[in-house]
Structure formats: C-alpha cells, structure tokens
C-alpha cells in the first residue's frame, strides 16, 4: 500500500514510520520546510524513544520519505492520513479545525484515483462528514465510496511509548462508511491482524466519539484517584493502597490510578474540554467530564500551596529546587504540564526557582525565559535550595543518592508530587517528606 501522511508532528511522524515498518511505502508531507529539511538530514524534531532508529531504518530501506510537496506525497496513494494539529481554540475550548480543513481542500484538489482520506488527528464528532462535504465541494461530481472515502482512525499513542503502542495496541478503531475504505484500512493494518489485535470497525461518527470517550474516561480515572488522595490525607489513609485495593477488581483495573499533581499533556486537557463543548452544543452535557476539567485545573493551581506549607507557610526569599518539568517522563513535551502552573505560582510567592529536566530544558526556556535558573543535573539543582519538589517521575530521580540530596539542601524537606519514595523509609532517614495521599 502507498500512504501519504500529512503533518510530521508527533502523531504523523510516529504513525508514518510505523506504517513504513509494516512494509508500506509512506511519504510524510509537511508545509514546514525547515522541519522537512531536518528530517531529510536524518534529524528527528521530537524526542521519542526508538523513533530515530525506526525512521533511519525505513528511510534506508526506501519505504519512508519526506517532502513539502503534497502532490508528490499523494501520487498513487491508496490512503491519505490527516495528522495535522487540532489545538484548543482560544476563548471557547472547541478544537481548532482550520488546519484539518485547509489540508482537506488541498487533498481534494489532488485526488486522481480512488483514495481513502483518513482523519488521524483527534477531531470532534462530525468532522469526517465535514471533510467529506469539503471534498465534494472542491470536486463537483465526486461520490463517496466511488471516487474517495473518508474514514476515521484515531490514535491512542502515549508519548514515550508511542512506537510500542502503535505496533502492539490494545485495539485499533476504524470508522468507515463503505466497504472499500474498510478493505484499504484492513490491508494497512494487516500485520496487526496477524498479531490478533482486535480491529474494531464502526461507523465514522462512532469512531470519532470513541477517541474522546477513551481520553475523557482515563482523565476521569486520574481525577478520581487524585480526589481520593486528598481525602486520604484528611483521614490518614494511603492512596496507593486504595488504588491497589480497587484496581485489583477487574471491572476497575489497576492502570491510571497513580495520584499526582493533575494530568497534563497534549491530549487530556484539550480533548476533555472539546468533549465538554461538543456535548453542550448537542444538548447532552457530560457533567462528569465538566467536573473533571474543573477539578484538574484547580488541582494543578493548588500544588504550589503544598510547597508553601512544607516550608512553614512563607516562600518569600526561599529557593525551591524543581526536578521534572515535562508533563510526564520520557518526553520533552511540556504542553499543559503541571510545572507550568507550579513554577509561576512559586515565583509569585517570592521564591527563586532552580530547575532541571532530563529532556525538556529547551522547551522550558521558551516558557520561563530568565525567571528561573536552569541546572544541568539534579544535584546542581539542589545546591543551596530550601526544599526539593519532584514534579515529574523520571527514573533517574527515583535513583537519587538521598544522602547527597540532604547535604545539598539547606533543610531536609521534599515535596514529592509523584510518590516516588516511601514515606516510612524517608521518615527513618530524617526527612520531612510530603507526598500525595499518604
Ligand atoms: C494520552 C493517552 O494515554 C493516549 O491514549 C492518547 O492518545 C493521548 O493522550 P499521553 O498524553 O502521552 O497519552 O500521556 P499519558 O501517559 O496518558 O499521561 C497523561 C497525563 O496523565 C500525564 O500528565 C500523566 O502524568 C498523568 N497521569 C497518568 C497521572 O497523573 N496518573 C496516572 O495514573 C496516569
């Protein structure tokens, strides 16, 4: 099969490289010339474990290429994937579909044989129908199922584990309106059929909703355990034991029950908000998700208060060491990261912040400019600080030499927002240790 992948962001690049690795011929297309020229030079613009090798191998094998020329990318393509950004629109929280619709118009003008146009970006319910209408407007006389089809194929990739998630997914969801599109998608995902991965074919609109429902459900699960954590703190219970106690019930499941500073990232905050708006628009409000959005926002904003309390109620003139800036480990992504709420709040309370993250220091500079001190490693970050705050649970922070940490800090105080150490162990070692829900 031949595939054109429009958009070389996170989803487009990972999906393109993985389809190529399945044996298809893939052309990744992006308007950003500097991005394409970097990719042609073998440089990967994002940090994702294993992606550089996967891209290099498939480029070498002649299955994967990059271009800014959509016509070149679409030549002979059986399927064109739209994997451009769908950010939250400023002001109303709806997904901004201008990039999707602009790409659709360009694709429509270039279709020269039956092609399946697939939305891979997370798009609101009903976008597939809109994409179909745009193509028919641009190409008078075009009939869906005959000259083209529009399908939905949402991604469920986690940053940091995206390649594995693509190649060994729990399931693949394809929303199609005709058998021809189903045949093309079946062929594209054939290697997964051999793996016995469940491939779910649904109506297009259902597939679009599955993506939002999945992310909203996971965000709800996290928010639920975060609120349980607050309650645990009040009554003296242990949230990790609560999570284990409920998670062993197979109907609940043990994953996504880690209490923390609130979820962030490029998907959950944006998708929960977009689902709330879509549901309101259709007169079927999703009140649970509305509460989740609000609770998570409030939670992220409240985290700096824990640091303030840990240093005795006043941050004025204090130095805070922050370890972890990315929204989760194994990524350089800081979109909607809790650190973006915590650090400005600490500074607002009069603290100086020195920070380190293994991968997102360049990103951090864009957000914080010269308002914080950037440190090369964890131990430098601690030098002369009054308190250590763990914001992201990178493995290397789990393995810190705590005796050395104690020596570097002016007082033995840790606010661990990811529960990476054991409270009994920390107490024994003489730490004032504040964690979440324990
Ligand atoms: C998520 C979905 O998992 C993926 O299926 C979807 O396609 C895109 O959004 P991602 O944003 O990469 O993936 O990160 P994920 O690992 O899901 O974590 C999201 C946020 O939730 C992070 O801020 C993380 O720290 C937080 N989280 C996750 C918790 O606080 N507790 C948990 O138990 C799990």
Automatic annotation (TrEMBL):
The keyword Magnesium does not apply. Its EC number is 1.1.1.22. It comes from the Bacteria. Pathway: Nucleotide-sugar biosynthesis; UDP-alpha-D-glucuronate biosynthesis; UDP-alpha-D-glucuronate from UDP-alpha-D-glucose: step 1/1. Substrate binds at residues 156-159, 211, 256-260, 264, 328. It holds the Pfam family UDPG_MGDP_dh_C. It catalyses: UDP-alpha-D-glucose + 2 NAD(+) + H2O = UDP-alpha-D-glucuronate + 2 NADH + 3 H(+). One of its GO terms (molecular function) is UDP-glucose 6-dehydrogenase activity. The active site is at 267 (nucleophile). SMART domains: UDPG_MGDP_dh_C. InterPro entries: 6-PGluconate_DH-like_C_sf, NAD(P)-bd_dom_sf, UDP-Glc/GDP-Man, UDP-Glc/GDP-Man_DH_C, UDP-Glc/GDP-Man_DH_C_sf, UDP-Glc/GDP-Man_DH_dimer, UDP-Glc/GDP-Man_DH_N, UDPglc_DH_bac. One of its GO terms (biological process) is UDP-glucuronate biosynthetic process. Residues 321-423 form the UDP-glucose/GDP-mannose dehydrogenase C-terminal domain. The keyword Oxidoreductase applies. NAD(+) binds at residues 30, 35, 86, 122, 159, 270, 335. Signal peptide: none annotated. Keywords: NAD, Oxidoreductase. Belongs to the UDP-glucose/GDP-mannose dehydrogenase family. PANTHER family: UDP-GLUCOSE 6-DEHYDROGENASE TUAD (PTHR43750). NCBIfam families: NDP-sugDHase. This is UDP-glucose 6-dehydrogenase. It comes from Aquisalinus luteolus.
């Amino acid at each position: 099969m031949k595939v054109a992948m429009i958009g070389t962001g996170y989803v487009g690049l990972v999906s393109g490289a993985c389809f190529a690795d399945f044996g298809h011929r893939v052309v990744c297309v992006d308007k950003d010339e500097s991005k394409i020229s970097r990719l042609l030079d073998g440089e990967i613009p994002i940090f994702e474990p294993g992606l550089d090798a996967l891209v290099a191998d498939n480029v070498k094998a002649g299955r994967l290429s990059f271009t800014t020329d959509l016509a070149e990318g679409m030549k002979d393509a059986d399927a064109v994937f739209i994997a451009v950004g769908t950010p939250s629109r400023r002001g109303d929280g709806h997904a901004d579909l201008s990039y999707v619709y602009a790409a659709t118009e360009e694709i429509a003008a270039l279709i020269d044989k039956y092609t399946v146009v697939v939305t891979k970006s997370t798009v609101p319910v009903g976008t597939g129908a809109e994409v179909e209408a745009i193509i028919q407007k641009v190409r008078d006389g075009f009939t869906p199922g005959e000259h083209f089809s529009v399908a939905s194929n949402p991604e469920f990739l986690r940053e940091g584990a995206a390649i594995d998630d693509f190649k060994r997914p729990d399931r693949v969801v394809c929303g199609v309106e005709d058998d021809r599109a189903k045949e093309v998608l079946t062929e594209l995902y054939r290697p997964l059929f051999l793996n016995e991965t469940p491939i779910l074919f649904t109506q297009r609109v259902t597939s679009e909703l599955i993506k939002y429902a999945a992310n909203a459900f996971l965000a709800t699960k996290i928010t639920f355990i975060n609120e349980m954590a607050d309650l645990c703190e009040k009554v003296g219970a242990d949230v990790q034991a609560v999570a284990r106690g409920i998670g062993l019930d197979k109907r609940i499941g043990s994953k996504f029950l880690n209490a923390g500073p609130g979820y962030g990232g490029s998907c959950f905050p944006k998708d929960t908000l977009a689902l709330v708006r879509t549901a309101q628009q259709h007169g079927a409000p999703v009140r649970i998700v509305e509460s989740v959005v609000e609770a998570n926002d409030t939670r992220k904003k409240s985290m700096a208060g824990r640091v303030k309390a840990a240093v005795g109620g006043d941050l004025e003139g204090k130095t805070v060491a922050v370890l972890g800036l990315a929204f989760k480990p194994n990524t350089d992504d800081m979109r909607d990261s809790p650190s973006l709420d915590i650090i400005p709040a600490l500074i607002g309370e009069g603290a100086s912040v020195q920070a380190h993250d293994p991968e997102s220091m360049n990103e951090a500079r864009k957000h914080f400019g010269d308002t914080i001190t950037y440190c090369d490693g964890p131990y430098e970050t601690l030098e002369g600080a009054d308190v250590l705050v763990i914001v992201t649970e990178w493995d290397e922070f789990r393995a810190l030499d705590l005796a050395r940490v104690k020596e570097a800090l002016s007082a033995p105080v840790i606010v661990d927002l990811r529960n990476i150490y054991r409270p009994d162990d920390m107490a024994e070692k003489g730490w004032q240790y504040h964690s979440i829900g324990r």
